[in-house]
Design a protein that fits this description.
By secondary structure, the protein is of the alpha/beta class. It folds into 3 domains: 2-62; 69-229, Trna Endonuclease, Chain: A, domain 1; 243-284, no CATH class. It has helices spanning 2-7, 11-20, 23-33, 37-50, 54-62, 65-68, 76-80, 82-90, 109-118, 120-127, 174-189, 209-217, 242-249, 251-272, and strands at residues 73-74, 96-97, 131-142, 145-155, 160-166, 199-204, 223-229. Strands 1, 2, 3, 4, 5, 6 and 7 form a 7-stranded mixed β-sheet that branches. Helix 12 links the parallel strand 6 and strand 7 (223-229). The two termini are 33 Å apart.
């Protein structure tokens, strides 16, 4: 509680924060971020927005949500302008963690799509607040040719369609051209009223950020590229504070000392053949 008071010295802020989530949530955040009140406040907002339990909050911290949000490689700001582009980028992640589906390493794109649709409520939670599932394999007629969208969503806060193209393997530059065609067709055939320009999201097993940036640089269609993972590979090694890293480095020595102490104590007990009621050797 002293740490919390030091982190949030202004009473109005404290009252607002404490009313939004439970004390157990704040304890988790204090343990995770210490005096980094910006991260603390950011996760409070997300916990309220998504109605996370303490367990769900811990899970999102472990998966480094604050590093994944808005991290997709995109040309949204160039295509939509700074304000709308920033808002669109803010609803992306990189990578997307799809650990709720069970797929083989050699999964096909349609199988991946099937798995996601079968778990659509969980997938929507991973996408984030605001996404509404519109359909899968949405048909589009372009010049007499028929194209099918893998997954189509509508984001009610952005008021625009979001086309998701699922890919197995690494991002390739030609994916951007195909997505541009999809977006133009969606705007022509599905967009209505005050709907904003549709945006695309290409989900790949992995992508080279430089290749993706070059592929999107001169495209007028707003497109983002991100990775998807079923087995989270979030590396936390570089985020461990120096002091804690030094403590962790000394753990093997501590272990050896404890092992030696236990062995020595056992030897003393055996040598003295303690009688009933005789005190044990001082464990210190």
């Amino acid at each position: 509680m002293r740490r919390f008071a030091a982190l949030w010295p202004e009473q109005p802020i404290v009252q607002t924060l404490s009313a939004q989530i439970g004390w157990s949530h704040h304890q988790v955040l204090l343990d995770a971020f210490g005096d980094q009140n910006a991260l603390h406040g950011r996760y409070v907002a997300k916990a309220v927005e998504h109605r996370w339990s303490v367990r769900e909050l811990k899970g999102q911290i472990d998966l480094k949500l604050h590093l994944r949000y808005g991290a997709a490689t995109a040309n949204y700001q160039a295509a939509l302008g700074d304000i709308e582009g920033h808002a669109a980028l803010a609803v992306t992640k990189d990578p997307y963690i799809l650990d709720f589906i069970d797929v083989a390493e050699d999964v096909k794109e349609r199988e991946l799509e099937d798995a996601l649709v079968s778990e659509i409520p969980t997938f929507l939670r991973e996408l984030g607040v605001g996404f509404a599932f519109y359909g899968r394999q949405q048909p589009l007629d372009v010049g007499g040719q028929e194209f099918f969208l893998d997954l189509l969503f509508y984001h009610h806060r952005l008021r625009r369609f979001v086309v998701i193209d699922l890919k197995i393997g690494e991002f390739e530059a030609q994916f951007a051209g195909k997505m541009a065609l999809y977006l133009n067709a969606v705007d022509e055939q599905l967009r209505q009223g005050d709907d904003a320009q549709s945006i695309g999201l290409i989900l790949c097993t992995n992508h080279n950020k430089t290749v993706a940036k070059f592929a999107l640089h001169r495209s007028g269609a707003p497109i983002a590229v991100a990775d998807w993972q079923t087995d989270p590979r979030v590396d936390i090694a570089d985020d461990i504070p120096g002091a804690l890293r030094a403590e962790l480095a000394g753990l093997p020595e501590v272990r050896d000392r404890l092992t030696s102490h236990v062995k020595l104590t056992a030897e003393r007990v055996e040598a003295r053949q303690l009688r009933p009621g005789e005190p044990s050797p001082d464990p210190g």
